[in-house]
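Dear colleague,

As promised, here are the two records you asked about, laid out in our usual form so they can be pasted straight into your sheet.

NAME FIELD: protein one
SEQUENCE, THEN STRUCTURE:
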Amino acid sequence: MKRVFALLMLPILGWQSAALATLAPKTDPQTQLAQSQQYEYEYRSETEYEYEQEERSRTSVIDVGLVLTLISTLRQSSRGNANAGAIDLSPEIAEIRGNISRLYLLLARQYLIQDQIYEACTAIDSSLVAEHESYLRRSLAPINPASNDCYGQDLDRISQLTGSPTGIIYPVLSEDGLELLFVPPNRSPRETAKAKLLKSIGLDTLAQAQTANQPTSRVVRGTNEKVLESTVRDFVVNLQDPSSVDYMRQAPQLYDWLVRPIEKEIDAAGVETLVFVMDGALRVVPPAAFHDGDRFLVEKYATVSVPAMSLTNLEPPTRSSNLQVLSMGLSQSVAGFSALPAAKTEVNTIASEVLRGDVFLDDDFTIDNLRNYEQDKYKDGIVHLATHADFLSEKPDDSFILLWDEKLSVKQIAAMDFSGLAMLTLSACKTAVGQNLGISGTAVGSKAGSVLASLWSVSDAGTAPLMISFYSRYGEARSKAIALQQAQLALLNQEVTVASGKIMGVPKLEAVNLEDSASVSLDLSHPFYWSSFLLVGNWL
């Protein structure tokens, strides 16, 4: 074992392509902002991509067999007596799982070098599962079986189910560079229609042959893990200033790194919903606020982030007119945290006027009332928590949601059973840039279908319009991701507004009075308000 751990101390191999070493020249902030507001992307030719593939093939080759042997050895040593779903008692086991995660990522990069995309997908997923096991100190049983086509068939099914062709983007980061892996549905909408026609006239064999879409990988020039993390940090900070457009210094750059290189393939597949399998600092960035120089990403696609495809429930919740919501929150100041008067409006409106359910506010918002919620009543329903939360720490014990009587840690949430719940919403929380696993860890640990969480502390009066607008669309939208996109667009396009302390423009609702906000007027078109929430997990 000493030799195994010695090998693990070797630096992670990455790409050494000269294409990844060239960084964009620096400009002063005013010039940079002027350029970003009139952004034009210089498209690269296919020959440049071919050159990148050739350069990639010359990079250092690792012994795949050796890495798989190391992973197998470490898995044996990390079994302990913990079964799937049980808490691992030893911090050492969690550390080993972290090493397994890094080895799988190393393996994924090698597969990409060899253009073995399906194998790379599986390795990336295994890396993310091991990383979440390390964070939660829990063995995780996969929800979905291993896929031999990067979940292409699942994307086919989901695309037809939602009427929104869906694709997956895997950003693979290293110290040396960034590579994108894009997985479209196996068939484009046109091919799906053709297959249905062929099947209807008895030509099943030809129908099955309509599977032209294939996954694509692209090496991205001009960035690496460190540069991208710095850009994300600036982006998230600038988004939190509703009086400024400084976020436009980073929004087009992030689009160019994470979407533009595969945009042609996205368009060819007719994709309308993008699933991002994020890693590192990218876990807390809102893709909806990326900008192509003309439009925000949200104006083109619905978006969602997933912790790992194998840890994401890909079955749709049952939607009915009897959808129930458990709406809980804090409007008063507790434990030194500021009061959230609009939270009272938010939880009451959601549970009585938009959806139907129960309200627990302030001193009724307790750990006992949360633990004792009726699972049968809220099956395929929603638990909405309007309160303070903090995911700044990389330790699940220190990341928490504030209740009236105590702080509920991510680790405690992971010990609760929200299985059967369609969505857990965390309104008014905040997080940080880094290897942040707080929100994705909550999504995995809670067993809820998905988590909808705010990435920064939005103004109290600014959170309610987005949340109420989202829930007003939830029951009729083709998916949660589309409901969120529609709510975001309603704020961006100033269809939903806040003026003189009233929320106006929400479908099927009269003007909603905000508690203690009689004189408040807000410009909700700024991404500070509409891009603050991230949907993580099941987006159906």
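NAME FIELD: protein two
SEQUENCE, THEN STRUCTURE:
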Amino acid sequence: MFKRKRIYGVRTSITIMVCSVVTLVLLLLYVIFRNQIIPQTRQNLEDKAITIARTIAMMPLISDGLIQGRSEEIQAYTTRITRPNDIMFVVVIDMNSIRYSHPDASYVGKPFAGGGQDIALRGEESVSEGEGTLGKSIRAFVPVYDGRGYQVGIVVVGLSLEKVHRIISHNEWTIIAILLSGALLGALGAIVLARRIKQMMLWLEPSEISKLLEERSAMLQSTREGILAIDDNANITLINLEAERLLRQAGIKGEALRQPVSEYWPTLRLENMLNSGVAKLDEEIDLNGTTLLANSLPIWVKGAIVGAIVTFRDKTEISHLAERLSGVSLYAEALRGQAHEFMNKLHVIMGMTHMGLYEDLQHYIYGTVNNYQNEIGSITRHIKDPVMAGFLLGKLSRAREAGIQLILAEDCYLPSAKGSEIIHELITIVGNLLDNAMDALNETDNKEIHLAFHYQTDRLICTVIDNGSGVPESIRKEIYEQGFSTKGEDRGMGLYLVQRSVNRMNGHLTLHTTEGHGTEFIVEVPYIVEDDDA
């Protein structure tokens, strides 16, 4: 119901606007016709009267008849030409205004009635309105000259004023009929145009389109990803502020809009997508030392490619975000392991309580508390950084759940780090190495992992050893690549993150492994401690 009302409203609104424009144009045309065509009609009738009067005045019969006083011949001639020319009358008068012809023969020889002949008596043509014996008329006065050029009289041709008004009125109504027909055709055209515009505008009002365009533009400019789009001619049609910032940072400057993308950003090769139609996802683009992570996709409209769009971000920012998320996931995993272990112990306590085994329960709780305190004591003695200590407690709990013995070396020592960035990178390294070691022990009976920290004057050596099946020689060069894994899809991030964190800390990562006899990872990184622990 809402959509129908909205479509109807859009159609009605557009129809009204188009009809209003058509009506305004037609009114303007009517004013123009009224002020130009109608006066022209009267002028044409006056010109007709003047032309007939001139023709008659040039006849020798008229000038000779006036000179010789032969009114009968003049009367006969004017009577003969009056009706065929659709005029009211033809009157010939001499210089004394005495009629030599008249539609009513009884008026011949009498003075001209109605006036207006004075100008013609002075030798000038004139047109005027007057009322004579035949009624109101438009009269054209033309002087008559003899063969020597002397004026001998006047020819007066009259058109009925009522008939003139009737012709003018007829022309006016013709104009109105034409304009009304135009209005009808305009209204029909407006309806058809409204339907077409309605489809093109997706049922939106012009004001809604304007508001939507402003909102979309604001959204586009405020996004944290760079966005660049091209049309089917590979010319840039859209670029947001973030894209301009990233490209300017990489050394690409200048006006981008309406420029060929092959000239503005040649290494992108976005124009090739117009032919291939194949999207490129998570593509790394090196741009003058800046690495961008880009997603390029073709734009399809009605089954045809009409352009392409690319979104991109600085890979350094994405990497930093991924590291932060990986750190948080490691903390969450540690807490989950501890919570699961304590839940199991609570279930044991509840079951022994229900069975009334209070003495056994007392021994169980005492042993559990002692074990936990021993673990805490061992970790707090060797691990002085509280974040790493809490993290390792969680890993111990998870290892016990998996049936793995996680052994912390007796001589290990980790002082508190100066700055959270150092311990954050170290947790990423240790956490992923321990997770990889646990995965490597899935098919091992006696599962053991040895962890050691050795601090030596601003340097820290971390060792993780498992007794798993080892790393096959054929894949040792590939294990640090992003996405490479022998455990299935959506894996292969652990050692990649370890290698990246080690590189970020300007450290070294060493692998010692023998196939079938376990794996040892040795990490050596700079480690700045707090002053009180130095």
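A couple of things worth noting about protein two: Residues 23 and 180 are 10 Å apart (CA to CA). Residues 2-57 form the longest helix (56 residues).

Best,
R.
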